[in-house]
């Protein structure tokens, strides 16, 4: 039997994430993002279903590219207001035992010495259930608000991210020996200083003597996720990622992406099968296909076109208000998320997208496919992605909250379990053990060689 599929709930500590306007659907509870009980209920539900992780997106800055104005994004709640995701983890970990927590943090706007400490701490208090989703950030408004002036250009952000990760690997993997903590009350020695080492890192962006301030956490290095889609981003992911969040709108584009990434991973001396692929997916389901179609129709009616175009304009750093609705979106190189513009201009050469088509498609889950159907229909489609495309699992995107998760758990998970497509119980003690069946980083990973 093939390995079961893996599932992460892709969410954000905000009102809106990737389905603009759906907070207006009657019964939606997105406004409860400030409520700790909302998040602990989400964690319990996802763990009961056998999900691997709650995968938190995050963003710095406010979307102000569309119409050269931040008001549309603020009015439509486009990832604003939002709170920091990592602050939710201790509460969610307290009510669960196994599910992991993937935290998005930017290598452009924090210091690696500080972030290594924060993630080591979270890995300790969750007993090894932390993943680090590495992003380089794309909004100009973030750089301005953090006092950095202009946003770094696209490739330089990845150059800094390379160094950032090198520093983190040295701190997490090399600084403390496994038996450094001796806790010898007779001699009054808690830690053997001979087994705690400086890293003496000198680079173009960072100069850090070390050592790390934290003793080794259960995983040492958190599970590394990345979503590189541009050429530079793919190289970064091929070097560093253990799991890739794939943002492609079609099966064909996803298949091409996976093939390309496996070749890149091999060129870096890593086993191509050591990298797992998680496409974003939107599932709209119910008791039957007909009920699911009715829900889809309702959800579509609530899509905010202005909100969607505000979100996408920020993603691609192109003011879509300047284009006519029937105008074809042309490829341009920007310093924002190149993967998003590639998804609609390059990755499927047989398809041209107009602004109106992009807004309609992206209104539910942005660049991800949407599956609409009853439990058997959805299970068939998810299974086909594994068998035909070679994906390892999915980042499940929400339309309603917590309705999308609740529907998936109530209707689809029982069918997946009958088919052996989702776990019955957790196998390992840490997130990495549950995802990959190993304790440490894979062979050939730069963290393992740090």
Could you characterize what this model shows?
The chain contains 15 helices and 13 strands. With 450 residues, the protein is of the alpha/beta class. It folds into two domains: 6-293 and 367-436, TIM Barrel, CATH 3.20.20; 305-362, no CATH class. The strands form three sheets. It has an eight-stranded parallel barrel with strand order 1-2-3-4-9-10-11-13, surrounded by six helices. Strands 5-6 form a two-stranded antiparallel sheet. It has helices spanning 36-48, 71-75, 89-94, 112-125, 140-145, 154-174, 231-240, 251-267, 289-301, 305-316, 338-345, 355-362, 375-389, 403-418, 431-436; strands spanning 6-12, 53-57, 100-106, 130-135, 181-184, 189-191, 201-202, 207-208, 223-226, 243-246, 276-284, 370-372, 393-397. It is globular. Helix 4 packs across helix 6. Strand 1 (6-12), helix 1 (36-48) and strand 2 form a beta-alpha-beta unit.
